[in-house]
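User: I'm putting together a teaching handout on how sequence relates to shape, and I'd like one worked example. Could you take Tyrosine specific protein phosphatases domain-containing protein from Tieghemostelium lacteum, show the sequence you're using, and then write out its predicted structure as tokens right after it?

Assistant: Happy to. First the sequence, then the structure tokens directly below it.
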Amino acid sequence: MAKNILFCLLFVLSLTLNVVYCTFYIEYRKFHLIDKTPVLSNGFVNYLFRGNEPTISTPNGEEFSYEQLVDCLRNSSESQGITLPDDFYIIDIKLIYGVSSEIPVIELERNFFAANSSLGEFGTNVTLGDLWDPNFIPKSDRIEWAKNLTEWQKDNLPQRMEDYYNILNTPLDKPVVLFFHCLCGCDRTGEIAASYVMRYFGWDFITALDWDEKIAGRPIMPNNKWGAQWYCLYLKYSLNMDIDCDDI
Ligand SMILES: *[C@@H]1O[C@H](CO)[C@@H](O)[C@H](O)[C@H]1NC(C)=O
Ligand SMILES: *[C@@H]1O[C@H](CO)[C@@H](O)[C@H](O)[C@H]1NC(C)=O
Ligand SMILES: *[C@@H]1O[C@H](CO)[C@@H](O)[C@H](O)[C@H]1NC(C)=O
Ligand SMILES: *[C@@H]1O[C@H](CO)[C@@H](O)[C@H](O)[C@H]1NC(C)=O
């Protein structure tokens, strides 16, 4: 119990630090092409990317940079041997906590896509992680909770993954780049990216977590790690996937 309360306090503290004191600018090394579709009915391929806050520092303050964003998307996929098409439509999803101090940065992206709607669209998804380490819950209860994850998990990763998969696989009149990110591109982004590779590639939890840690350059925050681990248990016990969730 004490351990969980401690993590809860740590979570609130780091949330405050993240949102109030740290400014994150776009970082090329946080960008990765995660998946691409086969050729869809419109003849195009759609792409899924993770990254971080697509803003730059200017003399006028923090600004959204479409050019830098496209540069990071192109170069990172190129480094993975995939060339993006000349023209594409960005579906930009910012993973947020849903607190008011996030609004100014949200507005930067929202305003850009509102003014340049042929280049893409913008939306937000509240992403918090979970406050309970699944291994802290006795195994039989844990399995029951994993099975009804859709009923209680705030981030509802089962539904979220279906939604992202559907967006990714929907043909539009241009190739689509589905791009999700938070500020750092580490914790909330790590939770969502790990969930995707477990669900659609069958990666084990630890493999997904190691990949997150490599990109973040540090372990991801416990709440986001537990969120992904609960989702892994859902895949194992609800969808009967053969997956190692590092559960004891
Ligand atoms: C992307 O590649 C171009 C061409 O090599 C280079 O000029 C640019 O700096 C790179 N951008 C990033 C963000 O790495
Ligand atoms: C986005 O829209 C603004 C306002 O219409 C325009 O000034 C700007 O050049 C557009 N940006 C891009 C990258 O097309
Ligand atoms: C997540 O973002 C997508 C894209 O903006 C949106 O369609 C969806 O309704 C959002 N889901 C939630 C639960 O906020
Ligand atoms: C989920 O399952 C647990 C264990 O069976 C149960 O205690 C809990 O009430 C269920 N929660 C919801 C929201 O269905």
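A couple of points you could highlight for students: Strands lie at 32-36, 47-51, 55-58, 61-64, 89-96, 120-126, 176-181. The chain has a mean pLDDT of 94.
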